[in-house]
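Class, carefully examine what follows:
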Amino acid sequence: MKKIIIAAVLIGGTLLWAFLAQQNLKSQIASGVPQESLLTKLPGARFSTFEGAEFDLHASAKTAGAKVVMVHYWATWCGPCEAELPEMMAMLASLPKSENVFTVLVAVNDDVAKIRKFIDKLKIKDGLKYAWVLDNNSIHRDVYGTTKLPETYLFSSEGKFLRKLLGPQEWQKPMFLDMFALYLP
């Protein structure tokens, strides 16, 4: 009986924490106030492409001509990352101005063959601007302050920090469309 009570308290506490975290995110999105972060601007990161070439984030973002730059850290060895990514890409495709978002998908300490196999399963709609890159030495994770996967960062086209999203998100929820609507007038 004691174990059942302890389990019930733990489950109840976990559900309460999840509810409060969701309410906090909703209030941040509604207020338009950026989440606290050490980042104030888009770091000058140079990632590697799958072929080993250098990928200059600033130059690529400028070339894409997007209003929002989204940097998303993930990995194939991260179960929540794999579960979240198709939903995120579908949400981006459903944005009224999806061409105004440039998404950089940063695979962390991952194997290119596994990444390609995962990408082949994704059904990414045309019209999205995105790039797949690697951070296999976790160099840029330290620059961004990424502590766990997945993590997502949003920046304006001028490189100004907008928001950081920790952990897996339920991207199909209307609050994410509302969040992007703030940044894509």
